[in-house]
Structure formats: structure tokens, C-alpha cells
Amino acid sequence: MPSIKDVANLAGVGVGTVSRVINNHPNVTPETLDKVNAAIKQLNYIPNEVARNFKMQKSNMVALVLPSIWNPFFSELAYYIEDELDRKGYKLMLCNSGGRPDKELYYFDKLNQNKVAGVVGITYNDIEESISADIPIISIDRHFGKKITCVTSDNYTGGRIALNELVNAGAKKVAYLGIASSVYSEVILRKNGFIDEAKAKGVEYFIHEEHDNVYNDDLFFENFFAKKIHQGVDGVFANTDLLAAKYIDRAKRLGIRTPENVKVIGYDGIQDNTLFHPVLSTIRQPVEEMARMSVKLLVKKIEGEDLDQAIYRVPVKYRVGETT
Q1: Can you name the CATH fold of 59-152+287-315?
Q2: What is the dotted CATH code of the domain comprising 155-286?
Q3: How far apart are CA 229 and CA 34, in angstroms?
Q4: What is the mean pLDDT of residues 42-58?
Q5: Is the dihedral of CA 155, 160, 166, 171 positive or negative?
Q6: Is the pTM of this model over 0.85?
């Protein structure tokens, strides 16, 4: 089946131009209109009717579905998504799901009713079967089995960097602390990269992880410090900055000092204010780049354009703080 790209290549124009012709945009020259229509006829191209319907209704509202606006990472992400949407002529509808699948499904149902032009979403719930692959959606961190594009940071490389930085700081025995989603997400690659790099370097390591549906702060750390294997750990990589900060607090209560006794690295880079101490060493996600990329890809989908990739991974950087 020919795609909009095939039409663009045959007509010698850009994909956006083909989209404008399909959607009867006034700013198209007669010559371009003829070339594109000829290419459509020759290829027997059938436009994506769902995308056309959204465009023809000229909805300028985009829904952003977040598990929690309280999380600093999500808040920063929302800021840049709103800014990029504004630049593109769209308005933001913020949907704070609280991590509840029923609320997420409610918001996606609104999309099915053509209430919004598209959705940027973060969900760690098993709602895949209830989401249509034909509507304009960009997922962040979560890679669905359907053809829903995912934007994420390079989690695997981030895990490898964390292990190397702990070793460079003098750690000999390291631990990975993680809260795992009950469904697959790209976040698991942080652990995979950490493990693979530890094995490659011959570093002793162990994993302490619990699923988010049973996670409890007190029990998580009680179980961790109750394990004899934790003794001698002098390096910790937590899969979020918040979890790293909680570990530092719990360790301090037990007389374990950071970084004197244990080096700690988090993941996200949410601590921008240096007035708070200790400043956490972390794998910094490029939040602004991820946000703006998500919006740009979504607009392409709304306009009926096919995307080149299923997953867009953005490079991460190590930001040294006072915990290593």
C-alpha cells in the first residue's frame, strides 16, 4: 500500500505539501496541486481518513496525559511540551491521571470522540488494547506493541554510564535500586545497561527491585537493608532521582554517609536548585529535547505524515554532584 511519502517522492515535493493538498489547504500553487493529485492518482493512494478528519475539524487542542504533575520530571516535561505546542499553534489540555487506568482510558476516549487533535501520553498501565493505533499519539518512555511512536531517553546507555561513574568514584560493590512497572517500558533498560556493564567490568553487583503495584517506601528500604548482601555496598544506582534521594535519607538514619561510605547516582536530573544539599549526581535526561521532539512528531502525525522510526531515543549525559 503506497504511503504519503511515496506520493511526495513521485510528485517531487515534501510530505507536508502533500498533506496540505489532501486537506485542501489554500496556500498551494495550482502547479503543485496538479503534480500531487497526479501522483495520488497514479499510485492509487488512499489518505489516512482518521488523520484527515482531525485536520478538517481543525481542532487545536492536544491532550497531555501524565501519571502525576507533582513529579518534577513530569512538570518540566509539561512546561516544554506546552511551549512547543504554543509555537505550533496548538493549546494544551493537561490530564493528570494519578496513575489510574480508568482516568487514562477516559482521556483516550475523548480523543476517539474527536475532542482533541492528538495526545502525548505517559502511562505505565496495561491499557494497550483500549488504545487505537490509528489516532495521533506519541508515547513517552512506554513502547507499545502497536504502531504508536515512542520518545524516550537512551536508558540503556544511561545505565552503563552510571556503573562506570560509580567505579570511577571508587566503588567496588554496587547495587541497583528500582521501581519496576507492571508493564514493559523503556525504563527497564536502565537496569539492563547497568548489569551488562558490571558484568563486562567484573564488578560485583546486586539488584533490589519491586513492582510499582506493591511498592511501599518503608518496606522497600526495610527489605533492602535487611539483606545481608547489602553489606559492603559502596555504590548505588537508583532508577529515579527521587528513589536515590530516599535511599540517601534512609542510609543516613543508619549512619551510612554519602559519599564517604557509599556513592549514589540517580536518573532524571530533576534537581536544578543547588541550594539543596547534597546535590545529587545523576544521569540527566534531555527533558526539553524530548518534549519538543514529541510535539513535532505528533504534529506530523496529525497532518497524516508517516514517521521513520517506532522509537526515538535521545542521548543522556552524566551530571556530577556531591554524592559521588
Answers
A1: Rossmann fold (3.40.50)
A2: 3.40.50.2300
A3: 72
A4: 63
A5: positive
A6: no
